[in-house]
Design brief:
Metallo-B-lactamas; alpha/beta; seven-stranded mixed sheet; CPSF2; Rossmann fold; RibonucZ/Hydroxyglut_hydro; MBL; Metallo-beta-lactamase, Chain A; RNA endonuclease activity; about 20% helix
């Protein structure tokens, strides 16, 4: 099968100076311009987005957000009316974190206009088909794959190959000759994650005092899983429920989640051995007050963020005030009342409402939690039943009590007695061996590394240079490459065919293996024009075997397979897949594509 080669120009450039360590880049594929991430620094200085940069972003064809990390998501408030794509957890958790920090600044961020995409669900920006996959490491972290003819570009930051409990690594592997990633998530040594975990375990066991970690919220789950022991997570009251959701989502039970204001002498000593402080999205104002309580010679402080100056740390007096908010609009709303046989308990009303796409959206149901006072403060009981709708009334008659956080600086402290460690090898979420394996599995030939720290780039490049033909460093200069965008070529050889030779007999036929037998010849001419639904000649029993091995329910009537009662595969001269369930269709199609030889007209 012959084809003409067409080259597509691909450019990747930083829109924000790399010295800020903020992620905001422009990906240009042909005539399509896509902005990747809208990050901000911990100081929330929006001035880094100059009028020129804002104009470039406004004129782009779309914006992609890889995660809700502050340096990928934090400047979203500047561009809420633009065409933005991200996963549901990224939109919801990111919005809550932004509300938290903007509330401290006296601002209200009422709305985020985003298109929320699911993993493995294709969408388009102009003529570019994009599919989002799980990149691992944190809830909602995304790897974007851009289809260019039958070639593709993959883009993912902070990708994690490790799979532990529900925090899975990369969910899909496919051929992608070009890969774009960043340079700060790989350990700056050849140590494996397993060896690193043992080092940390040894350090904790040898420490007489407390081991205190300062982290961004996106590394919370990965850190708890790495420590493999009971920990105390200190969080802001306003985001505690979301933090609790993230931890429980990962099926982690060995933690205690407490508010910054809880007296630490009431926390179980076993939980105080390892303390994790969430510090980003404005939560660094609590750091001084916490370190003042643990400023002892036997304690160890491990900073896994971008680094704090441990002198003259401000200490704030934090208070919560209740204020009444009255609604002015008149609209029919539903009021719920909780009925319980346990009348001696008060009830705490926790509102999980967020504003997505200009409307109230409750991705996590509104609940009323029973308040229980004990030595550990407030404990939320989730086992609440008998919630009944009893009436409707005008919204103008409703008054809501809003809890406002107020704080003022009381003093500054200098952290001197406390031991501070800069454990470089602990700062990465993936080890270099794992990253190398990822790129090998993707068949990466051209790697673009977004640079924040040149030493990380040098280490990654040195480790990968024998396996990847071309490595580019994207700091403050444009990276320009070309890729083949031909639409008629061999896409994938995998599975049992991986090591078999193939030969072009003519423009219409391919021979698999050197043995000239009819069942080894793929008839390209009879393949469907649409790559999405066509494969070459396949054995029915082979397809059934593959589907059943991957936990699909399969039944057969003559030359038609029914999968999960909602998808049909018809075998004639070619194999055709059809279903009204788009998610199921994509899953089955991608599975078979990885196992079979694929062609396109």
């Amino acid at each position: 099968m012959k084809s003409s080669k067409f080259n597509c120009q691909v450019l990747y450039e930083s829109l924000i100076d790399n010295k800020t360590e903020v992620y905001c880049h422009l990906l240009t594929i042909g005539d399509v311009n896509i902005v990747v991430n809208l990050g901000i620094g911990n100081d929330f200085d929006y001035n880094i987005y100059t009028d020129k940069i804002k104009k470039i972003i406004s004129n782009a064809d779309g914006i992609l957000l890889t995660s809700f990390d502050i340096k990928h998501f934090g400047a979203l408030g500047l561009f809420t009316d633009h065409k933005i794509f991200c996963t549901v957890p990224t939109a919801v958790i990111g919005k809550i974190m932004l509300d938290n920090v903007e509330g401290k600044r006296g601002n209200i961020l009422n709305n985020i206009n985003v298109t929320m995409v699911k993993y493995a669900q294709p969408f388009k920006i102009k003529n570019i088909e994009i599919v989002t996959y799980n990149a691992g490491g944190v809830v909602g972290n995304s790897l974007f794959n851009f289809k260019i003819g039958l070639n593709s570009i993959s883009l993912g930051y902070n990708i994690n190959h490790a799979s532990e409990k529900y925090v899975e690594g990369l969910s899909e592997m496919f051929l992608s000759s070009v890969f774009i990633t960043n340079d700060v998530y790989g350990c700056v040594s050849s140590m494996t994650l397993t060896a690193r975990t043992k080092e940390i375990e040894t350090l904790i066991n040898m420490t007489v005092g407390h081991v205190i970690f300062i982290v961004n919220i996106t590394r919370l789950i990965e850190l708890i899983l790495t420590l493999k022991q009971k920990v105390c997570v200190i969080s802001n009251l306003n985001i505690m429920e979301r933090v609790k959701f993230m931890i429980e989502w990962a099926n982690i039970n060995n933690f205690e989640l407490v508010d910054f204001n809880v007296p630490f002498n009431k926390i179980n000593d076993k939980l105080k051995k390892c303390i994790i402080i969430i510090s980003d999205y404005g939560n660094d104002i609590y750091l001084g007050g916490i370190l003042r309580r643990f400023n002892e010679r036997n304690d160890i402080l491990i900073d896994l963020t971008d680094g704090y100056k441990l002198t003259n740390i401000p200490v704030y007096d934090i208070k919560y005030e209740q204020r009444i908010k009255r609604y002015e609009k008149t609209e029919e709303v539903k009021v719920e009342e909780v009925k319980s046989e346990v009348s001696e308990f008060e009830w705490y009303d926790l509102n999980d409402t967020v504003f997505i796409n200009d409307r109230q959206t409750k991705f996590f149901p509104r609940k009323f939690f029973k308040v229980v006072e004990d030595d550990f403060g407030l404990e939320f009981d989730f086992k609440v039943e008998n919630i009944e709708e009893i009436e409707s009334q005008s919204e103008e008659d409703i008054e809501e009590i809003v809890e406002i956080e107020t704080f003022h600086k009381t003093e500054t402290i200098r952290v001197v007695p406390i031991q501070t460690l800069n454990i470089d090898y602990f700062k990465g979420v993936s080890d270099l061996n794992g990253i190398k394996e990822i790129f090998n599995n993707f068949g990466v030939e051209k790697l673009i590394i977004v640079g924040n720290k040149e030493i990380n780039f040098d280490i990654m490049t040195g480790f990968l240079m024998d396996d990847i033909k071309e490595v580019y460093y994207c700091d403050n200069e444009k990276v320009q490459i070309e890729i083949d965008s031909s639409v008629t070529s061999l896409v994938t050889i995998s599975g049992e065919l991986l090591n078999k030779p193939f030969y072009t007999l003519d423009d219409k036929h391919i021979l698999v293996s050197p043995v000239m037998r009819t069942d080894n010849i793929i008839d390209v001419e009879n393949s469907k024009n649409n790559l999405n639904i066509a494969l070459g000649k396949l054995e029915v029993k082979e397809v059934v075997k593959i589907l059943q091995e991957n936990n699909f329910k399969v039944s057969q009537v003559y030359n038609i397979l029914t999968v999960n009662e909602n998808l049909t595969i018809t075998f004639n001269d070619t194999l055709e897949i059809s279903s009204y369930d788009n998610t199921l269709l994509i899953s089955v199609r991608e599975l078979l594509y990885k196992k079979m030889l694929i062609f396109s007209q």
